[in-house]
């Protein structure tokens, strides 16, 4: 399994590696951006349970393009055949930035799963990602696999569980916490979701809403 963090905050793999890892940009800076001089272990780190972890990083604030950094990371991984030689590749892409560069990983994916909540910003970002999936699907294999609802009282709802917050403070995954009944219930649900995703998600049509329609849906005047 390979997880690639595509957010400039570079904290996607924090609980897997127990630290903020050096990013691809950090590694490139050490070789004056001569990518051919990099080895895999310069920017790929092993995390919990053998998960390979990569953080794209981002340019200094106010300079450069974060989407370009993501594109360069994907290019570097392809040169080392890491995308082709890995069973499961997870791109953790931020959804609140609409720059096309952040959508670049979609063209290397089979299914895109969107994690969203019930607030306006999350729904707006989800809709933009659906638009991006539809655009990429015209020329690439990627299809919408589904939407994972966070902070929802619908199926798979769990009560507020402080251990989830504590796992991040303790720099560990939920599977490394003491298995209290509440934690065990969450672990079991995660395993169920993982098994379902491993079996494959049927493609769904990518039909985005107009921005104005989102306002109307949520009851804004």
Name the descriptors.
221 residues; alpha/beta; Rossmann fold; 2 domains; four-stranded mixed sheet; two-stranded parallel sheet; 7 helices; 6 strands; 35% helix; globular
CATH topology of the largest domain: Rossmann fold
- Residue stretches low in confidence (pLDDT < 50, at least 5 long) are none
* Oligomer classification: single chain
Largest sheet: 4 strands, mixed
Nearest-integer average pLDDT: 84
Largest sheet: spatial strand order? 2-3-1-4
Number of H- or I-type helical stretches: 7
What structural class do helix, strand and pairing data support?
Answer: alpha/beta
Strand content: 5-15%
Let me know the CATH homologous superfamily of the largest domain.
P-loop containing nucleotide triphosphate hydrolases
DSSP E strands, number = 6
Write a structural description.
It is globular and about 50 Å long. The model has no long low-confidence stretch (mean pLDDT 84). The chain has 221 residues and is α/β, with parallel strands linked by helices. Helices cover 35% and strands 12% of the residues. The chain contains 7 helices and 6 strands, in the order E-H-H-E-E-H-E-E-H-E-H-H-H. The protein has 2 domains: 1-101, Rossmann fold, CATH 3.40.50; 109-221, Rossmann fold (3-Layer(aba) Sandwich). It has helices at 14-17, 24-30, 66-79, 120-137, 162-169, 181-199, 211-217, and strands at residues 2-5, 45-46, 52-55, 89-92, 111-116, 143-149.
């Amino acid at each position: 399994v390979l997880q690639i963090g595509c957010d400039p905050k570079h904290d996607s793999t924090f609980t897997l590696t127990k630290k903020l890892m050096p990013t691809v940009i950090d590694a490139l800076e050490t070789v004056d951006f001569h990518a051919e001089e990099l080895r895999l272990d310069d920017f790929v780190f092993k995390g919990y349970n053998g998960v390979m972890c990569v953080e794209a990083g981002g340019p200094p604030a106010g300079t450069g393009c974060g989407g370009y950094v993501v594109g360069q990371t994907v290019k570097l991984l392809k040169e080392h055949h890491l995308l082709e030689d890995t069973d499961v590749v997870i791109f953790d892409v931020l959804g609140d930035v609409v720059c096309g560069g952040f959508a670049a990983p979609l063209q290397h994916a089979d299914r895109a799963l969107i994690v969203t909540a019930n607030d306006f910003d999350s729904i707006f970002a989800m809709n933009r990602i659906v638009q991006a999936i539809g655009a990429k699907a015209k020329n690439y294999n990627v299809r919408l696999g589904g939407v994972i609802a966070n902070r929802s009282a619908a199926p798979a709802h769990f009560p507020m569980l402080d251990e989830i917050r504590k796992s991040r403070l303790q720099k560990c995954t939920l599977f490394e916490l003491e298995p209290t009944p509440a934690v065990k219930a969450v672990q079991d649900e995660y395993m169920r979701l993982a098994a379902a995703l491993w079996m494959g998600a049927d493609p769904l049509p990518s039909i985005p809403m107009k921005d104005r329609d989102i306002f109307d849906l949520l009851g804004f005047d």
